[in-house]
# Entry
Amino acid sequence: MRITVTILFLLLHAITYGQKIQFMDTTNIWSNYRWYWSGTWHYNTSFGNQAMLNGISYRKLNNNAYIREDTSNSKKRIIIKDLSGSYAIDTNEYILYDFTAAIGDTLNKIITIDDTLTTIITSLDSCLVDSIIYKKWAWKCFSANYPLRYTIEYYYIENIGCLQGFYMPIQPYVGTSGINKLLCFRNNNKIVAATTLSKNQYYLDPMNCNVSINEIQTKTLTTIAPNPANLHSKINFPYTVVSGSLIITDILGRKLASKSIINQTAIPIGELPAAGVYFYTITDNYSGNKFAGRFVYQ
# Structure
């Protein structure tokens, strides 16, 4: 009897511990950050009441957009309908997320005034969300008329959403003119953190829930090789920086070097005036991340 009770307890504990967050959980709150030349916005996305549109049941978001889960044909898709025109290009239904997508699947075909944009799944991976394994999809936008305009790869996590902002899959065109980012995700009043399986790199950093949009979050996920450094050493990034910069300063704070970063995973330190201790700051213009550290130069 004791053995049976113990087994039942362990099974119940495993089921409870391994239960995944559900996207349509009404306690979910997404905190988003958007930066353009004209200003910055920090806004939350959350669920409102249920609503019926043309005989179909939706959950209203805290704006004039409506969302529903589609599980037909063995799929699990999140469908969005925007009646305000603030997020989608029109009032048609679009796939916001497909949590059963395979590599090569098309999410949406979006027709704008001067272009046709197709969003396609490019890779499928996994990540840890509060110690539970979730799927992670990468997708890109392909333009019919401006192929060089859309070069960035975006990501969304199973049952959580896009790391570049809640609405990004239906408005990829905004990614070319500013920075969009999911700062923080909460489920049932609990801050959720997500890391990769291969590296201890935060995709959703819980510290972002406690900082203002103007605060710099310094990350130490870079490495230098060879180290101690010389003019041939490189600073390696935890991912490809599409657009960014490197600044090197001395111990007095004087700027000694400034370099642009374009689609790179590393950048050479180069020649410095003398041996000593130096500091570096790498800025990712797209995500807003800043990586900082120091090194000894010989």
Notes: Residues 17-210 form one domain.
